[in-house]
């Protein structure tokens, strides 16, 4: 285990203590949630970069509807 020491404003510490957020378990949970959230954000931006790099014109609403229709048909065939 690693020990971490941080400096925070007194008001924030008092509010966090009242909320029960300064226990090792709470801090670990908060850090895990923040880390996972940041990972999902990073993955989203990576996917957006990949989409932007495709350099193809966007689909029309009709083309999107056709793609959805085809995907649903594929799923129905797979479930049968």
Describe what you observe in this structure.
With 80 residues, the chain is mostly helical. The protein has one domain (10-79). It is built from 3 helices and no strands. The protein has helices spanning 10-18, 24-53, 61-79. It is elongated and about 60 Å long.
Shape: elongated
Could you tell me the number of beta strands?
A: 0
Structural domains: how many: 1
Largest sheet: none
Give the N-to-C terminal Cα separation: 52 Å
State Rg. Answer: 23 Å
Q: Helices and strands, in N-to-C order?
A: HHH
Mean pLDDT: 94
**Residue share in helix:** over 70%
Structural class: mainly alpha
| % residues in beta strands | under 5%
Number of helices: 3
- Low-confidence stretches are none
Topology at a glance:
Layout (H helix, E strand, L loop, with lengths): L9 H9 L5 H30 L7 H19 L1
Keywords for this structure?
single chain, 80 residues, mainly alpha, 3 helices, 0% strand
Short description:
This protein is mostly helical. The chain has helices at 10-18, 24-53, 61-79. It has one domain.
